[in-house]
Design brief:
This protein is mainly α and 95 residues long. The chain is 66% helix and 0% strand.
Length: 95
């Protein structure tokens, strides 16, 4: 078995989330790290670039803590925000 490329890992993480095989906080951490640190953006198509950028904008701001959302509602993403963006990405990229 070969190691996944960062691009493959992004798709894999989305598939894991769709099948409830990864919890949301871990998905957000792993997706954000892979996108922001490991990925060579030149490997993405224009559509992938747009979709993954939009998703990481939500995953990197995810907080499961209600106190965070009360403190600054616009600074943090909620579960619903992440799930909705994942749906959009899945539909646009035909995952």
């Amino acid at each position: 078995m070969h190691e996944r490329t960062p691009k493959e890992r992004l798709y894999w993480l989305i598939e894991l989330l769709q099948h409830n095989e990864i919890d949301l906080p871990r998905f957000c951490d792993e997706f954000s790290y892979t996108y922001n640190i490991d990925l060579d953006y030149d490997e993405l198509t224009d559509l992938e670039s747009e979709m993954f950028r939009n998703l990481t904008n939500v995953t990197s701001r995810f907080s499961p803590f209600e106190e965070d959302h009360k403190l600054d509602p616009k600074a943090f993403s909620k579960v619903e925000d992440v799930r909705e963006m994942v749906k959009i990405v899945v539909n646009k990229l035909n995952i």
